[in-house]
Input
Amino acid sequence: MQPIVDATKCEGIGSCRDVCPADVFEIKDDGSGSMRSIVARPDDCIDCGMCVDECPTEAIILE
Output
């Protein structure tokens, strides 16, 4: 499974990046000046679900 970030919910807080033991996430400008979390290294995901639990806007699912 891999994390999927819903860009309409993500506020770029970075809690997913901070908690991820596999360093899967990066925070990037989405082109409109807003920061968003992206899954930069999906193949490195270890399916722990910590990002899902930590995201305050419920923007991440494992699929």
User: Anything to note?
Assistant: The CA atoms of residues 9 and 59 lie 5 Å apart. The chain has a mean pLDDT of 96.
